Amino acid sequence: MKEQEIKILLVEDDEDDVILIKSFIHSEMNGRKVSIDLASSFTEAVACLDKTQYDICLFDYRLGHVNGLDLLRSVRARGITTPVIFLTGQGDEEVAVEAMKAGATDYLVKAKLSSDLLYKSIRYVMELQKKEEALREGEELNSLILNSLTSLIAVLDKEGNIIAINKAWEHFASENGNNFPSCTGVGVNYLKVCRQAAEAGIEGARKALVGIQAVLNGSQAQFTLEYSFRSFGGKELWFLMRVVRLAGKHGGVVVTHTDITERKQAEETIRYLAYHDALTGLPNRTLFNDRIALAMAQAHRDRHKLAVMFLDLDRFKIINDTLGHSIGDKLLQDVARRLTACLREGDTVARLGGDEFLVLLPRVDQVEDVAKMAERILEIFKIPFRLDNHELFISSSIGIALYPGDGDNAQTLLKNADTALNRAKAQGRNIYQFYTSTMNARAFERVILERGLRRALEQEEFMIYYQPQISLHTGHIVGMEVLLRWQHPDLGLILPMKFIPLAEDTGLIAQLGEWVLRTACAQNKAWQQAGFPPLCVSVNLSPRLFKQQNLIQLIDRILKETQLDPHYLDLELTEGTTMENAEMAITILQELKKMGVRLSMDDFGTGYSSLSYLKRFPIDRLKIDRSFVLNITANPDDAVIAMLIINMAHNLNLKVIAEGVETEEQLSFLRFHHCDEIQGFIFSQPVPAEAFTKLLEEKRCLPPENPDKTEK
Ligand code: C2E
Ligand code: MG
Ligand code: MG
Predict the structure, then answer these.
(1) Which residue from 157, 422, 512, 554 lies 20 to 30 Å from 594 (Cα-Cα)?
(2) DSSP-assigned letter for residue 567
(3) What does the DSSP assignment read for 224-246?
């Protein structure tokens, strides 16, 4: 781009001088064309300057009746900043000084004027002009930047006096006055402002004072501080204060205060969300964990208890599934409100998710208080929940664990409260349940077993063991009791006492019992078909199966299916089973008897059989319970009971078998008192079918009685 021409205004009334000066000025300077306008009077000069922007003016001192100095002053007064070279006469040095003061950039003595001098002066003036312009532009830019910033910015000198502030500071101070963090402006000592605020107890001001002093004295390169501040309008604001050392000769600092209220609010929201459940606004698990940790530390220090309640809504899933999630959500919100209202200040209720809530009672003096609180919580569910034209009745179950008794850390406490909750639910819902230490193992085992039980039948994990029953008259095997075993894939062999009650509870016993009966009958038939002497197989009949409507038909069908003669099936019943409804039992027993099936009364002596009923029950055999046999030779009472049972059975025309016979002494006692049969480890443990076949093949029998070993 071609550079613009250099425009010069020459103010001169002497025509000769004009010619002379014009002749000194080249038509080109530094590759730029030069144009000269001429003004011969004050008025002309002003008119030219108003009209045109010149790069340089040459003012002659003497201009008719006015002088160049007046012109210069007047020009500057009009705000015209064009550089002026002042032309003076010989000996007018004082005028030259005046001209410089009035704003001339350079002066030249007319008498000594040469082309060279004039050229040098013009070049110098123009360069100076350029530099000043750049500086001015830079300064303008800086202040533009500073003033466009929303942070409050002040520059302090070494003593802490404010030497500059930006617009934001000015604006803030206009509202907030001479109060920390602002102050009215330049000249004020900022350290003093901070000190006064600190003395008035403003925490941020105290820290700010220390920080600024540290940066001013060089012990710290910079300092930052986040502080909150209540504005005159009462709004809480947050500021980030930054103090940075100023490089260079100034040696002061720059102090900025940036409003970070929005960021703080966002952080606050994030923190809130991280610690609260979005649906109900209750604390979530994380916050609950914090609170419980704190409460445990306090309880430990002050030696008091605390309680954790695990609460869940009974059958919430049904509401959610049938009425939709929006109703489900509203219900949870209502429950949260009611729970919060029913607790004391200082207690915490949290939502874990789903329909699970946790309650923390951080200070418990008496366990009864916890029970009362649990009752109060159950109470709040008594009033129905009204949601979108629905009236919902819902209850809740509560499990409670106490610190320190039920666990010394949060995790254990929660786990145990959960176990207690499961127990509460199992007991029929809408109740609360305190944790007990036996519950844990039991509950755990129960859950595992219950889960496994369902698939055990399909997976063929059940096995049947057979324990021989031996006649004391002949010493030969006369029968075998069928005893169920569960080969659990993880827990190994499980005995029936552990899983039979569970199978009863879950109703699985019907299928299981049928399977046992069928397998036992089929196996017995198989032994008979293999040519072994026919034996009687004893099958334990569970109370539930006994009460089952189609029991008779079931047994009949199985006997037909397996083609086992009914005489070779013996059903073992307990006193409890038959006495629960004795009249009904008599009818069933009679039906069974009619079919030809044999009947034994198992575990005899442990129940509460009435003698009159015993007479009416059409049974064949009494089984003396193992517990009497165990101490038959050591405990005279047990010996008497065993003897009485044997005698009574014989008087009623019943056979007697003793179970759990382990020792020679027990055997001798039973023989001596004419017990008919025995069953026990002394002869054989319960064994699988193959092992039992071996016993039959070996024709294993009891050795005849040792005549020396009769009872003394
Ligand atoms: P139960 O009918 O009184 O069975 C006798 C129990 O005594 C069996 O325990 C047997 O293994 C054990 N026993 C036999 N001789 C001795 C001995 O000399 N010493 C000792 N210490 N114990 C001996 P098991 O197999 O654990 O069965 C326990 C109970 O489970 C049975 O008591 C019975 O009530 C029930 N049960 C077993 N199988 C079935 C079944 O298929 N159905 C039903 N409903 N109940 C069953
Ligand atoms: Mg039995
Ligand atoms: Mg028994």
Answers:
(1) 512
(2) G
(3) EEEEEEE-TTS-EEEEEEEEEEP
- 176-230: pLDDT as tens digits: 777 788 888 888 999 999 999 899 888 889 999 999 999 998 888 889 999 988 8
- Express as a percent the part of the chain with pLDDT over 90: 50
State which fold the 6-137 domain adopts: Rossmann fold (3.40.50)
Q: How far apart are CA 327 and CA 331, in angstroms?
A: 6
676 alpha carbon – ligand 1 mean position (Å) = 19
Domain ranges of the chain: 6-137, 140-265, 278-436, 455-628+655-662+674-700
Of the bound ligands, which one is closest to the alpha carbon of residue 681?
Answer: 1
Q: Which of 464, 558, 659, 664 to mutate to test the pocket of ligand 1 (most atoms within 8 A of CB)?
A: 659
Can you give the pLDDT at residue 710? 45
Retrieve residue 270's tokens.
């994030």
Residue 540 CA to ligand 1 centre (angstroms): 9
Cβ of residue 497 lying under 6 Å from some atom of ligand 1? yes
3-state secondary structure labels for all residues of 11-76: ECCCHHHHHHHHHHCCCEECCEEEEEEEECCHHHHHHHHHHCCCCEEEEECEECCEEHHHHHHHHH
CATH superfamily, domain 278-436, is Reverse transcriptase/Diguanylate cyclase domain (3.30.70.270)
Around ion ligand 3, residues with a beta carbon closer than 5 Å are 602-603, 659
Question: Average pLDDT of 573-580?
Answer: 85
Give me 37's structure tokens: 């306008």
For domain 140-265, give the CATH superfamily.
PAS domain (3.30.450.20)
CB atoms within 10 A of CB 427: 11
How far is residue 556's CA from residue 545's CA, in Å, rounded to a whole number? 14
Is 500 near ligand 1, meaning CB less than 6 Å away? Answer: yes
CATH 3.40.630.30 applies to domain 455-628+655-662+674-700: no
Q: Could you tell me if the CB of 484 is within 6 A of ligand 1?
A: yes
Query: Taking each helix axis from N to C terminus, what angle separates 93-102 and 68-77, rounded to the nearest 10 degrees?
Result: 10
Ligand nearest to the CA of 623: 3
Closest CA to 614 of 658, 641, 592, 645: 645
Which is the closest atom of ligand 1 to the Cα of 509? 44
